[in-house]
Design goal:
about 5% helix, 1 helix, single chain, 10-stranded antiparallel sheet, mainly beta, about 55% strand
Length: about 190
Protein backbone atom coordinates (compact mmCIF):
# COMPACT_ATOMS: atom_id res chain seq x y z
CA UNK A 1 0.00 0.00 0.00
CA UNK A 2 1.60 3.25 -1.10
CA UNK A 3 -0.43 5.48 1.17
CA UNK A 4 -3.19 4.98 3.75
CA UNK A 5 -5.13 7.80 5.40
CA UNK A 6 -6.60 6.77 8.72
CA UNK A 7 -8.08 8.94 11.48
CA UNK A 8 -6.38 12.10 10.24
CA UNK A 9 -2.95 10.54 9.71
CA UNK A 10 -1.21 9.34 6.58
CA UNK A 11 0.90 6.18 6.56
CA UNK A 12 3.19 5.52 3.59
CA UNK A 13 4.73 2.36 2.14
CA UNK A 14 2.94 -0.32 4.14
CA UNK A 15 3.88 -3.83 3.06
CA UNK A 16 0.82 -6.07 3.60
CA UNK A 17 0.72 -9.82 3.00
CA UNK A 18 -2.49 -11.86 3.13
CA UNK A 19 -3.32 -15.45 2.29
CA UNK A 20 -6.59 -17.36 2.49
CA UNK A 21 -6.72 -21.14 2.48
CA UNK A 22 -8.12 -24.04 4.48
CA UNK A 23 -10.75 -21.68 6.01
CA UNK A 24 -8.05 -19.44 7.50
CA UNK A 25 -7.02 -15.86 6.71
CA UNK A 26 -3.38 -15.08 7.43
CA UNK A 27 -2.19 -11.47 7.43
CA UNK A 28 0.99 -9.66 8.32
CA UNK A 29 2.18 -6.10 7.92
CA UNK A 30 4.66 -3.59 9.28
CA UNK A 31 4.13 0.10 9.88
CA UNK A 32 7.15 2.30 10.46
CA UNK A 33 5.94 5.82 11.21
CA UNK A 34 6.91 8.60 13.62
CA UNK A 35 3.61 8.01 15.50
CA UNK A 36 3.84 4.20 15.71
CA UNK A 37 6.06 1.24 14.91
CA UNK A 38 3.88 -1.84 14.52
CA UNK A 39 4.77 -5.37 13.46
CA UNK A 40 1.58 -7.43 13.08
CA UNK A 41 0.82 -11.05 12.23
CA UNK A 42 -2.61 -12.64 12.58
CA UNK A 43 -4.70 -15.67 11.73
CA UNK A 44 -8.49 -15.72 11.65
CA UNK A 45 -9.79 -19.30 11.66
CA UNK A 46 -13.25 -19.74 10.08
CA UNK A 47 -13.42 -23.54 10.47
CA UNK A 48 -15.78 -23.44 13.46
CA UNK A 49 -18.63 -21.18 12.34
CA UNK A 50 -19.99 -20.95 15.91
CA UNK A 51 -16.70 -19.70 17.40
CA UNK A 52 -14.21 -17.92 15.19
CA UNK A 53 -10.58 -18.26 16.21
CA UNK A 54 -8.20 -15.31 16.37
CA UNK A 55 -4.44 -15.41 16.81
CA UNK A 56 -2.50 -12.16 16.86
CA UNK A 57 1.14 -11.46 17.48
CA UNK A 58 2.04 -7.79 17.54
CA UNK A 59 4.93 -5.61 18.59
CA UNK A 60 3.86 -2.05 19.25
CA UNK A 61 6.60 0.52 19.80
CA UNK A 62 6.07 4.15 20.74
CA UNK A 63 2.43 4.40 19.70
CA UNK A 64 1.39 8.02 20.35
CA UNK A 65 -2.30 7.41 21.09
CA UNK A 66 -3.21 11.11 21.16
CA UNK A 67 -1.60 11.99 17.82
CA UNK A 68 -3.01 8.78 16.31
CA UNK A 69 -6.44 10.13 17.37
CA UNK A 70 -7.18 6.97 19.37
CA UNK A 71 -7.74 8.83 22.65
CA UNK A 72 -8.99 12.34 23.35
CA UNK A 73 -6.56 13.53 25.97
CA UNK A 74 -4.86 16.84 26.60
CA UNK A 75 -1.37 15.42 27.02
CA UNK A 76 0.95 12.85 25.49
CA UNK A 77 0.10 9.16 25.83
CA UNK A 78 2.69 6.76 24.38
CA UNK A 79 2.38 2.97 24.63
CA UNK A 80 4.71 0.09 23.76
CA UNK A 81 4.07 -3.64 24.21
CA UNK A 82 4.63 -7.12 22.81
CA UNK A 83 1.20 -8.73 22.44
CA UNK A 84 0.17 -12.35 21.86
CA UNK A 85 -3.54 -13.16 21.64
CA UNK A 86 -5.09 -16.58 21.04
CA UNK A 87 -8.87 -16.61 21.49
CA UNK A 88 -12.04 -18.20 20.15
CA UNK A 89 -15.49 -16.68 20.39
CA UNK A 90 -17.79 -14.01 19.12
CA UNK A 91 -18.81 -12.14 22.29
CA UNK A 92 -17.67 -11.64 25.89
CA UNK A 93 -19.76 -14.53 27.19
CA UNK A 94 -18.33 -17.20 24.89
CA UNK A 95 -14.68 -16.12 24.56
CA UNK A 96 -12.04 -18.63 25.64
CA UNK A 97 -8.30 -18.36 25.18
CA UNK A 98 -5.33 -16.38 26.34
CA UNK A 99 -3.59 -13.03 26.08
CA UNK A 100 0.00 -12.16 26.98
CA UNK A 101 1.50 -8.68 27.17
CA UNK A 102 5.24 -8.34 27.69
CA UNK A 103 7.59 -5.40 28.04
CA UNK A 104 4.69 -2.97 28.28
CA UNK A 105 5.24 0.74 28.92
CA UNK A 106 2.79 3.62 29.23
CA UNK A 107 3.96 7.22 29.28
CA UNK A 108 1.71 10.20 29.99
CA UNK A 109 4.33 12.52 31.48
CA UNK A 110 5.21 9.77 33.94
CA UNK A 111 6.49 6.35 32.88
CA UNK A 112 4.69 3.17 33.99
CA UNK A 113 6.08 -0.25 33.09
CA UNK A 114 4.79 -3.79 33.31
CA UNK A 115 7.11 -6.69 32.54
CA UNK A 116 4.35 -9.24 31.98
CA UNK A 117 0.59 -9.78 31.97
CA UNK A 118 -0.80 -13.25 31.26
CA UNK A 119 -4.55 -13.79 31.15
CA UNK A 120 -6.66 -16.79 30.26
CA UNK A 121 -10.34 -17.74 30.10
CA UNK A 122 -11.39 -21.38 29.91
CA UNK A 123 -14.86 -22.90 30.13
CA UNK A 124 -16.06 -26.42 30.89
CA UNK A 125 -19.81 -27.19 31.08
CA UNK A 126 -20.74 -23.53 31.60
CA UNK A 127 -18.19 -22.95 34.39
CA UNK A 128 -15.62 -20.29 33.54
CA UNK A 129 -12.11 -20.16 34.91
CA UNK A 130 -10.48 -16.73 34.57
CA UNK A 131 -6.84 -16.29 35.56
CA UNK A 132 -4.59 -13.23 35.42
CA UNK A 133 -0.94 -13.15 36.46
CA UNK A 134 1.05 -9.93 36.15
CA UNK A 135 3.65 -7.77 37.89
CA UNK A 136 1.04 -6.16 40.13
CA UNK A 137 -1.45 -8.89 41.06
CA UNK A 138 -2.74 -12.41 40.57
CA UNK A 139 -6.48 -12.88 39.98
CA UNK A 140 -8.52 -16.06 39.77
CA UNK A 141 -12.25 -16.29 39.19
CA UNK A 142 -14.25 -19.48 38.79
CA UNK A 143 -17.96 -20.04 38.26
CA UNK A 144 -20.97 -18.90 36.27
CA UNK A 145 -20.39 -15.39 34.95
CA UNK A 146 -22.61 -13.53 32.49
CA UNK A 147 -20.96 -10.32 31.30
CA UNK A 148 -24.17 -8.82 29.93
CA UNK A 149 -25.81 -8.50 33.35
CA UNK A 150 -22.76 -8.63 35.63
CA UNK A 151 -22.88 -4.97 36.70
CA UNK A 152 -26.62 -5.11 37.48
CA UNK A 153 -26.18 -8.37 39.41
CA UNK A 154 -23.38 -6.75 41.42
CA UNK A 155 -25.58 -3.75 42.23
CA UNK A 156 -28.48 -6.01 43.24
CA UNK A 157 -26.23 -7.93 45.63
CA UNK A 158 -24.29 -4.95 46.96
CA UNK A 159 -27.45 -3.01 47.83
CA UNK A 160 -28.20 -5.69 50.43
CA UNK A 161 -24.97 -4.84 52.26
CA UNK A 162 -24.09 -1.20 51.59
CA UNK A 163 -26.19 1.91 51.09
CA UNK A 164 -25.61 3.73 47.80
CA UNK A 165 -28.55 6.12 47.35
CA UNK A 166 -28.49 6.09 43.52
CA UNK A 167 -29.05 2.31 43.53
CA UNK A 168 -32.24 2.62 45.59
CA UNK A 169 -34.05 4.86 43.10
CA UNK A 170 -35.20 1.78 41.21
CA UNK A 171 -36.27 -1.79 41.76
CA UNK A 172 -33.63 -4.52 41.36
CA UNK A 173 -33.17 -5.54 37.72
CA UNK A 174 -33.66 -9.11 36.51
CA UNK A 175 -30.25 -10.62 35.71
CA UNK A 176 -28.70 -13.80 34.42
CA UNK A 177 -27.38 -16.25 37.02
CA UNK A 178 -24.07 -15.16 38.54
CA UNK A 179 -22.41 -17.64 40.89
CA UNK A 180 -18.65 -17.46 41.23
CA UNK A 181 -15.72 -17.07 43.56
CA UNK A 182 -12.73 -14.79 43.12
CA UNK A 183 -9.35 -14.35 44.71
CA UNK A 184 -6.98 -11.43 44.35
CA UNK A 185 -3.36 -11.38 45.48
CA UNK A 186 -1.68 -7.97 45.33
CA UNK A 187 2.03 -7.94 44.55
CA UNK A 188 4.23 -4.90 43.98
CA UNK A 189 1.67 -2.11 43.49
CA UNK A 190 3.99 0.87 44.01
CA UNK A 191 3.75 1.86 40.34
CA UNK A 192 -0.02 1.90 40.43
Amino acid sequence: VESLKLMGNEFDSIDIHADYGDSRLLTDFDIKHPLINLDWASVIDFKDQDKLGYKVSAKVKNADLVKLNLVDYDKTVVVSSDIDLDIKGDNLDDIVGSVALNNTSYFDGELYTMDYFNGSINEISGIKDIAIDCDFFDFNGTGIISSGTFVEAFKNTARDYIHIPAWYDREPTETDKQEFSISLNLKDTRQL
